[in-house]
Protein: Bifunctional aspartate kinase/homoserine dehydrogenase I
Amino acid sequence: MKILKFGGTSVGSHENVRRIDEIVKGQNTPVIVVVSALSGITDTLLLTARTTAEGGEFTTGLSAIRTRHEEMAGQLFAGEQLNRVLSKLHPYFEELEKIFQGVSLIYELTPKTLDKIVGFGERMSSLLISEFLKAELIDSAAVIKTDENFGRAYVDLDKTYQLIAERCGNLKGVAVAPGFISSSSNGVMTTLGRGGSDYTAALFAAAMDAEKLEIWTDVDGFMTADPRVISKAYPIPSLTYSEAMELSHFGAKVIYPPTILPVYKKGIPVQIKNTMAPEAEGTLIGLEETDWKDRPIKGISSMSGITLITVQGLGMIGVTGISSRIFGVLARKEINVILISQASSENSISFAVDSGCAEVAREGIEEEFTAEIASGRINKITVEENLSIVAIVGEHMKHSAGIAGKLFHTIGKNGINVVAIAQGASEQNISWVVKHSDLRKTLNVVHESFFLSPYIELNIFLVGIGTVGRDLLKQIEQQQPRLMRDHRLKIKLAGVANSRKMYFDRAGIQISEVESLLKSSEEKSNMTAFCQEMIGMNMFNSVFVDCTANAEIAEHYHHILDNFISVVAANKVAASSSFSRYKKLKDTASKKGVKFLFETNVGAGLPLISTINDLQRSGDRIQRIEAVLSGTLNFIFNTLSEEIPLSQAIRMAKEEGYAEPDPRVDLSGIDVVRKLVILARESGYEIEKEDVKMEPFIPQKYFDGMLDEFWKNINEMDEEFEQRRKELAANNQRWRFVGKLENGQAEVALRIVDARHPFFDLEGSNNIVLLTSERYNEFPMLIKGYGAGAAVTAAGVFADLIKVSNI
Ligand SMILES: NC(=O)C1=CN([C@@H]2O[C@H](COP(=O)(O)OP(=O)(O)OC[C@H]3O[C@@H](n4cnc5c(N)ncnc54)[C@H](O)[C@@H]3O)[C@@H](O)[C@H]2O)C=CC1
Ligand SMILES: N[C@@H](CC=O)C(=O)O
Structure:
């Protein structure tokens, strides 16, 4: 025999009732179908009853209940059968009306009367369904026996099992039973508590030693997290009884927790199934899980609307009976305590309750401890509101070291403050309290870090869509399928800005639509507002990517890192600003556990900074750097010819995407000064830009004034350069703009090199770096390759992004 329970949504429409018929027909064993009231009916019954007791009218509520059932009957039956079903339904409406009239006369609604009223929902739905399935109707109230604790009666299990077995022992086909309702030994109607239809089904299953209990609902089973918050949540194939209990306790409203006990005692498996998608596997609950045996954590549950109350005082230390008095008060006031946390010093006890009961709880505690508060032995009762509880659940957490460490490290790294923690000695559940505003981020972080997510998400906020930024977007779009497939990495563009507009979307911005979305966006580009929005979005694994050359944007890095957001910069301004600022940014990143990466600041995509970092970390010491670090200048010197004068070569470098947004930064030598300073600092030298000796090769007057004037006047230098170029060519010599660091002294200057020099053959916009260190001494390390350009620079930024993701 099988017991199939269908919830309110599953019986809430005639289409769904027809689905139930199909599901039941597919069974090849006797079946008892337990049903809830039609969706929304229990709420209407409760509301109408309460309104009536307060002097309001009941006719509207009653007529809505009547219409709903009559309409459903009209959709399920026709002709004679419809008349017959309606004639069976009408006595219920009449009886209900009489009860409401009684309540309206005496303005009183006892728990006993309320149980009688709410039980009508299941009585009427079971009538409709049994008629439609042409099944026997079992009166659950006659076989489930309880005490008279109305609203949530306690079941006499022995008596109930005996009566069910007697009533259903000879059942051959299909029977339908209302959930939720029961009766006392005096025959008074009682109910099993909200959600009690699951419990009814479990009682039938246990009494009949059923082969399986199936709970048919409107979700695909227990999910790894709340799917309304985590779009990547997916069904858990199997759980043990205790895991299901733990998950149900904190929010996963898939099954009513008391349901588990009767079936657990008899070892009856419970299958959660979706009535709307019967083909989905669902979740199987049993003594042992059938899947995911290697996963320490099966799911995350969460609960919002939580208030944490803390009772604190030095006078509590070593005093017995404090806890018993606190929880005694709460028990007397019928306040459910959701989580408890006590410091081992015993000077404080914190407990979490539903915010709706917080005020009553606080008043009760203050009253109980009036004397201790007056004498100062208890000095504080604090109430923290707007909190949420999150719990990870899994039987294999037991004796598995490192779970809590990893959990709180990951949470902390994402800037989430943990307000309180509790872990049961059973080690199946670790629960903690966070601000409600951090709940989404917490769930995402935990879901990902414990591999409950099919992929890791990196949320990027990109500023600057020029040569590098545009290519970066193109590369992300092209590489995304491979990253998802091979590395479980999904790069999500959550915010973007050009110099005019900005646009955000937590769900992710389609890269192909970036330009048009920015064009139509109402939000004007503003860095302060951009940071505010990005930080306010409070997304986990966030990275700010700066593909501008803007100094104002670089000013915001500290604030961004301080808010647990990594920074990847192609922009060289921050890393080459004052040493104290550079150091502060690095220290902040390290303190906050995020990354500040700027590999492309020197040599574009060449692995220069990472190589220097590796040498340093492994104990080497950089003694000397000699390098060509300007792609633009190298390109210009390799391009100048009789046909191509200086001014034209500069324009070509700009068109090729090598030059800075303002090419005077390249021509003045400032770009190389910045790069040399960054390399020196990464090599451990405390150096400022002003410390670098620079010999300009173009007169200062061309750099003063506006950019337009520069473009207008720079051809004045063409002739002189052509003269000098000819002389060089005649001597088989070339110009190279060289940066050098030696004995802590840095200089940049235009050099003339001949064919014997290693820089002589440096082609196009290539860069070259010779690193002399303690280990690479007689033969320095040489790194050479493209030193500028959209594709290689964007690839370098991309590589930094991948480093942030830690895949
Ligand atoms: N192009 C190259 O080969 C390399 C460039 N870099 C660095 O990459 C950065 C970007 O260079 P490119 O893409 O070549 O320059 P670009 O001039 O093509 O792009 C910069 C973009 O930033 C935008 N922008 C400026 N201020 C802004 C603001 N306040 N808000 C939003 N957007 C703003 C500009 O409108 C422009 O679209 C620069 O810092 C450069 O030094 C680094 C290595 C190589
Ligand atoms: N303008 C720079 C670009 C790379 O940093 C250069 O030309 O090297």
The radius of gyration is 37 Å.
